Amino acid sequence: MRSGAYESVRTYRLIVGMWVRSTMAYRTSFVLTALGNLAATGLDFVTILLMFSHITVLGGFTLAQVAFLYGTTSTSFGIADLLLGSMDRLGRRIRDGTLDTLLLRPAPVLAQVAADRFALRRLGRITQGLAVLGWALAHAGIDWTPVRVLLVPLTVLCGAAIFCAVFVAGGAFQFWAGDASEVQNSVTYGGNTMLQYPPAIFARELVRGVTFVVPLAFVNWLPALRVLGEPDPLGLPGWVDFASPAVAALCCALAGLAWRAGLRSYRSTGS
Amino acid sequence: MTVPVSEAATEAVTDTVIELDGVEKVFDVRRKAGPLRRLRTQVRAVDGISFTVPRGEIVGYIGPNGAGKSTTIKMLTGILNPSGGRIRICGLDPTRDRTRLARRIGVVFGQRTTLWWDLPLRDSYELVRRMYRIDDARYAANLAACVELLDLGPLLEVPVRQLSLGQRMRGDIAAALLHDPEVLYLDEPTIGLDVISKTRVRDFLRRVNAERGTTVLLTTHDLTDIEQLCRRVMVIDHGRLMYDGDLGGLHAVGDSERTLVADFARELPPVEIEGARCVKVDGPRQWLAFPAQASAAPLVAAVAAHYPLVDLSVREPAIEDVIARMYGEDADRT
Amino acid sequence: MRGGFYAAVAVRGFRRYATYRTATLAGVFTNTVFGFIIAYSYEALWGQRPHLGGYTEAQALTYVWIGQALLQTMALMAGGFEEELAERIRSGDIAVDLYRPADLQGWWLSADLGRACFHLLGRGVAPMVCGALVFELALPTNPVTWLLFLVSVTLGVVVSFAIRFLVALSSFWLLDGAGVSQVVFLAGLFFSGMLLPLTVFPGWLGVLARALPWSAMLQVPADVLLGRHEGTGALLALAFQAGWAAALLLTGRALQAVAARRVVVQGG
Ligand SMILES: Nc1ncnc2c1ncn2[C@@H]1O[C@H](COP(=O)(O)OP(=O)(O)O)[C@@H](O)[C@H]1O
Ligand SMILES: [Mg+2]
Fold this sequence. Notes:
The complex is a heterotrimer of chains A (271), B (334) and C (268). Chain A is an all-alpha fold. Chain A has helices spanning 4-24, 27-52, 63-84, 90-96, 99-103, 109-115, 123-139, 146-176, 183-194, 204-213, 221-228, 244-269, and strands spanning 57-58, 61-62. With 334 residues, chain B is of the alpha/beta class. Chain B has a six-stranded mixed beta sheet with strand order 5-6-7-3-8-9, with helices on both faces. A four-stranded antiparallel beta sheet of chain B has the order 11-12-10-13, covered by helices on one side. In chain B, helix 4 (136-150) runs antiparallel to helix 5 (165-177) and helix 8 packs across helix 10. Chain B is globular and about 65 Å long. In chain B, 42% of the residues are buried. The chains are: A mainly alpha (271), B alpha/beta (334), C mainly alpha (268). The interface between A and C is large, with 44 and 40 residues. Adenosine-5'-diphosphate binds at residues 27, 29, 43, 45, 63, 65-71 of chain B. Chain B: Pfam families: ABC_tran (PF00005).
């Protein structure tokens, strides 16, 4: 028997291939929506530009520094959204019974659900996030050291992993409360919005919450403070800026456990 | 009533493919009972079912709506875990070995398609090929056989969304058989199909069973499916096995009747004919009931010979009727 | 008689969403979280630039919570009828609907008004109360202002409906409706003023954004409640909304007629 991870990736790729082909059946529609998506996700950043047309510093951060936050979280979120963006449809699949057909295949269910409705148009957000990140790297006046250079891609990848874990945990949650799938949005979309702004503008309890409870701060805030050379409003020890990989691994492990428990519950209750 | 259940003693001799022993499924259901109060009740969807099916048999699994048929099938495939009892399919425990079992069984849910809506039928089969790791020669042979027998040739390049219900069902059945499953479960495969599609599906299942020795378990509301395919029938109601035996026995127990619906050229007094009785008249249309075992052909010939027949159709006895009668008998006896 | 029918459809729309209690709670939670995130960013912004866009800090914060109250009411992030209608178009069930005695647009509009009414009460009030507990808001005490606000919200819902109706009808021509609606929703979030009040937009962008129909969904009702339109100004604001509502509904009608002809030609 081949390993579970290999099977998952293989299944994921097979199903993604089917969705990509389905999309390509309507090529014009795809090109239009991909371009539209690219432009529309950019409006988020336009909002920040508009704010900075009235001010020069927000929460102690310059525009380029905020753009760095924006670029990292948007790219991370975009990757997670591309990879597992349809997890929120699980509740619907449970309600209309189509989850059963996935359980009939000799393949991991999580990989099948993750690949569900895979949409290449979601590349729009990643592209736009990377563009802003590129601009920010050039203009944020970062004092480059090898550590900082390494920290940037690491931040983006760990951030993506943390968001992926949130998507999977959100999916698992729908096994028990399919109707409440919207709560997931407050962590995913809400988290992404929050991480675009400097931590200093938020109430301290909120920052503590997203550091210790839902560890979104590790997506970009903590490593970004290190890269940008800004002080940490919570005054945490310096090594936490490098803790993102460990936190991401922990999140993924917990999300995996939640998913298993959810699937087990489904198989015993059928709903 | 004594239920003739297949004997456990034969198990060692024949090759048993499906084996259930005291299988139960209990659902917790929360119902609204007033604006804030919720009542928790338990639904015993499957309530202690035991049976075995030897390799190569076609079994009909019938019962009224909500009897527990689909729930049984979901447990046999590993979608749902039983709350009690023991299941072995090809020697595997569906709860623990879901993915391993998936390679050895085929499943068709009548109301649910596994085909890809926007893609040509062939693409769905390609996915099956890769997901089940079917080797090329076997895939080619199986696909060719399905295409020929189910008449899928002209449909292979058509996007599934453009297929009719009957075409799609044929497509789904083929998809479930490409990996040579040892067991095939069909949950209401003929629901909503026209007569021609139904006939084609039945012929196909019969051949698959005869040529490949595939074991088939089939639920349906159409007694003709059962009559034409299954020698053995199981009747389930309220999650309990009420009958397990051959179809003839079921008819004898149920004493069911079919109905010939005849449209005449004009309004007539109730028709009188040997072997049938008129049960309803509505203008030029009359309903003639005749025993389910009797052939319809001589009756039609006799009616056509004596009356100005314009159009006719034969209604099969509804399974619900058969079962209701069965209980009637049951009540009479006790 | 017909009025009664559409009222019944609206009541059904209200009830339908009222049954999803967990979903409503989840939504309230999400709206509140978003409200907090945006409120803190506005606090930082208005802390540096008091009176930006003509709002005091309290008004800007009130604007945030009005936005959260109206987010679902205006179905700014989907969640209304449009997916269902698009699905009916894609599956071909629409052919049946077109031959029903009830008017297609009227039927869905009534249902959507019922939905909006529920979302205003069920998902709008609670986040607003949460916001008022934590931040200092500038809510009016004059009942006339509240009444005008309700009228403005109703008109805003009609504009929102009319736009989503057009989006759903696009499924007749574009089979990947999800992409179109996503683009329209993202644009809607921006141009309704949900991300930043349109009064803060500089120069021509501000003028354009305030003239587009999306401003009828949040900017106008918010300004009515914040008392920035008074007397004839308020009437003009409502007329602006009504104008867009009428124009978009008529466009929808025209498009529906074209689509209906197409259905007849193709036989569904
Ligand atoms: N997931 C579930 N949760 C609660 N009750 C269920 C569930 N699935 C089925 N049931 C109940 O179990 C009974 C049997 O259902 P089912 O197996 O679908 O019947 P059939 O297929 O024979 O019509 C019904 O009363 C049904 O309401
Ligand atoms: Mg069933």
